Amino acid sequence: MQPAQGKRANTSLAQLSQASRDKAAIVFIGTSPRSGWLPASVLRDTKGFVLTGRDLMAADAYPRTWKQQREPFPLETSVPGVFAAGDVRAGAMNRVASAVGEGSMVVRLAHEYLALT
To answer: What CATH number does the domain located at 34-116 have?
Structure first.
């Protein structure tokens, strides 16, 4: 299943399933945060990962951008009421189970945010 030199691998799910019977494989699908579509008001680290919670508070730009009388919620970005979960978040565990757990947390945190507004 190695790609020919200079060509991308085009491995089907069936081929991958067959290969996984023979060997164990871990596949990382994308290690880039793909956060370029977010407005500049959502602070990111130098690699483009979104800053949230404590990581956000440690950023140099935090005092200039965060104007709320409260600290940000754990997964809240520099824009109040906007949350980030999963691999796009700076400091994330980069595992599916962690992303699912963070997504569940965001539901509760969004309710908390809405209760304040």
So the answer is: 3.50.50.60
CB under 8 Å to 51, separation ≥6 — which residues? Answer: 43, 44, 45, 59, 77, 78, 90
3-state class (DSSP) for residue 111: helix
Strand partners, 83: 76
Asked if 88 and 49 touch (Cβ cutoff 8 Å), the reply is yes
Residue with tokens 């965060």: 66
Residue 36 tokens, joined: 């370029």
Domain ranges within the chain, ordered by starting residue = 34-116
Successive 10-residue mean pLDDT values, the chain, 117 residues: 47 51 53 87 94 96 95 96 90 81 91 93
Backbone angles phi, psi at 95, to 5 degrees: -135, 145
